[in-house]
Amino acid sequence: MSSSLGLLNPNAANVKGTTARSVITNAARGLAETVQTNLGPKGTLKMLVSGAGDIKLTKDGHVLLDEMQFQHPIPQMIARAVNAQDEVSGDGTTSTVLVIGELLRLADHYIRDGVHVRSIVEGYNLAKEEVLKFLDSYRRPVTQLPSENREFYVRTAYSSLNTKVTSSLASQLSEIVVDAVNCIYRPGELIDLHMVEIMAMQHKLDTDTKYIPGLVLDHGTRHPDMPKRLDNCFILTCNVSLEYEKTEVNAEWLYDNAQLKDKMMRAERKVVDDNTRKIIELKREVCKNGEGFVVINQKGIDPLSLDMMAKEGMMAMRRAKKRNMERLVLACGGVAVNSLDGLSPSDLGRAVSVYEHILGEEKYTFVEAVNPKSCTILIKGPNKHTMAQVKEAVRDGLRSVRNTLEDQYVVPGAGAFEVAAQVHLDEFLEQAQGHVKIGVRAFGEALTIIPRTLSSSTGRDDAAYMLIELQEQHKSAKRKGLDECPGVDVIGGGIADALVMQVWDSYSAKRNIVNTAAEVACQLMLCDEIMKAGTGKGGRGRIQE
To answer: What is the distance between the alpha carbons of residues 470 and 423, in angstroms, rounded to a whole number?
Structure first.
């Protein structure tokens, strides 16, 4: 069979057995070592330089794996699996890569000593199931909503954001993302994060990023005489053409004389003017105590119609983006109308204020409402890569708060869970039977890569001794029946209770880390041959070792 394959593609390259396993292990360990220094609040940054010379500084594992260019197939496979997990949970990317690399390193060590790979895989699967059961007993319930215990959700978001941006910026962004999720949260309904508009404005510093209880549009009015600010406004959201439109099919009009042509033009103009007058009449009907009136139209508004509205003191914006139409209704209320026939005051929304902000040649319109169901996070920064870094952090922070609300559980962080799981697996070894004990023991040891890395990031060179002390404190707390979760204090450089530090991790993220790391590692360990297709030009392909 192998000779047939060789004749079929003589330019192909392949490695088998021990060599293939070494290639897989070394590639996974290389990827883990690349991102290892980025873990935790004291993690270092990586500089990504694109082919066009664009620079991005980040320590977000998802950004690194998404934008790094891999030539080797093993890091490509790990990056795709981990990024798919990140799309769901929004966190845990770096931790998953580290655990995968450690699982493969320990497996390679035992396999070189003569242990069969199937024994390790069965042990890993058994340990994974036991760790997931332990996770359900180790998690902490969340019974209050953000409106009832805002500080707890701020601390949860801060635990995630502090690993991606500076602590001062993380503190500010934590409050912003909690307010944003609380704005769109409705009991009994799924949380749609798309209802949080993330708008970037290259202006001032990243610390000027703020939460807007409403919507920010990236365009303004198109008439110089229109007001730049209105308070206590009625909002008309519509998708109606207020300009002359060409026919959808090719048509030719023949006139006997100029009077017929002029009559046709007046009739076309009358249709647009009548629609504009309907809006003006509605404005006069509802605005009796000095209220403002704002028209936001998805289609066009011609200059004559804009002039008519400007004379009435109205603000009008045309060609609003389609994605903003649903958000406008959620933020201000009312109905998005597609026809002006039967227009009534019940179709209108309300806003506290609508004002225009001009930045250079760009115009932004702020629509702020009371108790909106859609909101905007306005990201500011002096340059593009700063805004991109803040945007990625906000994205992860929003998912962290959403996961806490949907899971209704959190897990003590700072490496406390990983050490507790390793201690639990050591006790579980007494129940395990046969050769699978080796895989169970290795799985527990692999989880400790997280607290060891956190300890190293604080500048200490005694990570092994700190791990032993953590294990002893967990065993002592368990014997005495104390509700303590010793973890790594990355600020003080010692050991502290994660409950006291209020360091919380997402329950779904922890569950995905254990699941993804075990599945990917087991699949890679069971590969005993790597085949690479030839170039077809006489050159033999080569697999990097």
So the answer is: 10
How many other β-carbons are positioned within 10 Å of the β-carbon of residue 321?
12
Q: Check if the beta carbon of residue 47 is closer than 8 Å to that of residue 57.
A: yes
Q: Rounded to whole angstroms, how far apart are CA atoms 246 and 517?
A: 58
**The amino acid at 213:** P
- Res 177: pLDDT: 92
Q: Is the alpha carbon torsion for 90, 329, 211, 190 positive or negative?
A: negative
Instruction: Give the residue from 34, 45, 39, 59 showing the smallest Cα distance to 164.
Output: 59
Which burial class, exposed, middle or buried, applies to 208 when counting CB atoms under 10 A from its CB (0-12, 13-18, 19+)?
middle
Nearest to 491 by CA among 483, 502, 480, 482: 502
The CA–CA distances, whole Å, from 127 to 1, 114, 140, 523, 529 equal 38, 21, 22, 16, 26
pLDDT value of position 11: 57
* Ranges under pLDDT 70 in the chain: 1-17, 246-249, 251, 253, 532-545
At 37, the amino acid letter reads T
Alpha helices (runs of H) in 37-72, residue ranges in sequence order:
61-67
Give pLDDT, residue 5: 41
Q: What is d(CA 70, CA 230) in angstroms, rounded to the nearest whole number?
A: 53
Distance CA 77, CA 519 (A): 12
- Residue 178 has a pLDDT of 92
Tokens of 264: 């046709």
**What residue type is 530 in one-letter code?**
I
Residue 545 identity (one-letter amino acid): E
pLDDT (0 to 100) of residue 10: 59
pTM, to two decimals: 0.82
